[in-house]
């Protein structure tokens, strides 16, 4: 009777190995994305200055004050590690609302964008 299940065990091992490979690749991709998308010191300074001037709304001004006082830092805020990350919500909502149509148009006009990629591309 064990012979009936030996093929199944091989299938499970193969599936587990594939899952391990996919997870490892996803971790590498995420690490690369994080490295390549870190804001520069100049960009953080511009953000800090604009936020302190109140140009980005009250919540961002509060975050900038906390960063200025050394009670928080932008890296922790953007990564979600800071409990104050929730203060980004107002700015993000405004930016999404202001850019929704432009993003939709850009996606619709992109001949390479496929909203339904084949499973092997995921």
List the helices and strands and how they pair.
Blueprint: H1 2-36, H2 41-52, H3 58-68, H4 74-79, H5 89-109
Give a description of the structure.
This protein has 122 residues and is an all-alpha fold. The chain folds into two domains: 1-37; 42-112, no CATH class. 70% of the residues lie in helices and 0% in strands. It is built from five helices and no strands. Helix 2 (41-52) packs across helix 3. The longest helix is centred in the first third of the chain and has 35 residues, at 2-36.
Summarize the structure.
The chain has 122 residues and is mainly alpha-helical.
What key phrases describe this protein's structure?
5 helices; elongated; coiled coil
Unreliable spans are none
Please give the number of β-strands: 0
Describe the sheet with the most strands.
none
The termini sit apart by 38 Å
Average pLDDT score:
89
* Total of DSSP H or I helical runs spanning 4+ residues: 5
Structural class given helices, strands, pairing? mainly alpha
What is the quaternary state of this protein?
A: single chain
Series of secondary-structure elements, N-terminal to C-terminal: HHHHH
The total number of structural domains is 2
Strand content: under 5%
Please state the CA-atom Rg, rounded to the nearest Å. 22 Å
Keywords: Coiled coil
């Amino acid at each position: 009777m064990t012979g009936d299940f030996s093929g199944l065990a091989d299938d499970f091992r193969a599936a587990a190995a594939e899952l391990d490979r996919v997870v490892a690749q996803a971790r590498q991709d995420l690490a690369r994305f994080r490295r390549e998308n870190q804001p520069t010191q100049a960009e953080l300074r511009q953000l800090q200055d604009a936020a302190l001037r109140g140009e980005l709304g009250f919540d961002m001004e509060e975050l900038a004050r906390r960063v200025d006082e050394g009670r928080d830092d932008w890296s922790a805020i953007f990564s979600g590690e800071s409990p104050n990350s929730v203060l980004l919500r107002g700015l993000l909502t405004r930016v999404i609302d202001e850019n929704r149509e432009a993003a939709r148009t850009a996606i619709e006009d992109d001949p390479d964008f496929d909203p339904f990629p084949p499973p092997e591309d995921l």
